[in-house]
Amino acid sequence: MRDHVLSLVSHDLRSPLNAIHSWAYVLERKIDSADATAQRALAGIRSGVEQQVKLLEDAVDNTRAQTKTLALARAPFALRPLLEQVAAEARVMLADTRQVTLSVVSPLDAETLDGDRERLSQALWVMLMFAVEASAPGGVVTLGSVVDGGHWQVEITHAMSFAALNSAELPRAFEPFACKQATQPRDAGRIAWVLALPQRVATAHAGSLTQGDSVDGAPSTLTLRVPLAG
């Protein structure tokens, strides 16, 4: 989530800085070189731009680079027990108290995957908790999972409720600002900030995470797809 926020901050700050830099160049050509006060003002503008650029590099770009890769502890593990475990945790932690039914629908039995079980557990937990939090009381969240074409695929479906996602009265797992952002329009292919961890885990496993459209009152699907072997 931090990386998504920093990406927006970086973009939003660079645009005005580029404009300031360009206008400083125009002023340099117009201002009398003998005007000491004007030259000091121009130097101050340039210095301010340079300081802001350095701040971006140190506080934004370097911070994003630190989490660009994710270390994995790979080992074979059974998929079905992982699904059942994460679903049980999500029920106890949030679904039951929000009166949301969470069900596992999967033909998986003894299938295994060579990957980081703990990281994938975290990814599923975030996806499930978001689906529960985005569901109105009395709603249903379905965790479906299959093995398809050498990949493990998980689909979490629910009915999107903006009122439930932004409710200050219902128990919640995520920060209010992240939930609010999840209700806003997204560019094609992008995901809500709150799903940044599942996306990072999927990418580290050479897989993918996709989020369906977020339309109030309409069905929505989160899909995680990861190769069975690293």
Automatic annotation (TrEMBL):
The record, for SUPFAM superfamilies, names:
ATPase domain of HSP90 chaperone/DNA topoisomerase II/histidine kinase (SSF55874), Homodimeric domain of signal transducing histidine kinase (SSF47384)
What Gene Ontology molecular function terms does this protein carry? Answer: phosphorelay sensor kinase activity
Provide the E.C. number(s) assigned to this enzyme: 2.7.13.3
Short name of one Pfam family: HisKA
Q: Which InterPro entries match?
A: HATPase_C_sf, His_kinase_dom, HisK_dim/P_dom, HisK_dim/P_sf
Q: Locate the Histidine kinase domain: which residues?
A: 8-230
User: SMART domains recorded for this chain?
Assistant: HisKA
Q: Give the catalytic activity.
A: ATP + protein L-histidine = ADP + protein N-phospho-L-histidine
Alphabetically sorted, this entry's keywords are: Kinase, Phosphoprotein, Transferase
Q: Which Gene3D superfamilies match?
A: 1.10.287.130, Histidine kinase-like ATPase, C-terminal domain
- Which PANTHER family does the record associate with it? HYBRID SIGNAL TRANSDUCTION HISTIDINE KINASE C, TWO-COMPONENT HISTIDINE KINASE
Q: What is this protein called?
A: histidine kinase
Species of origin reads Trinickia terrae
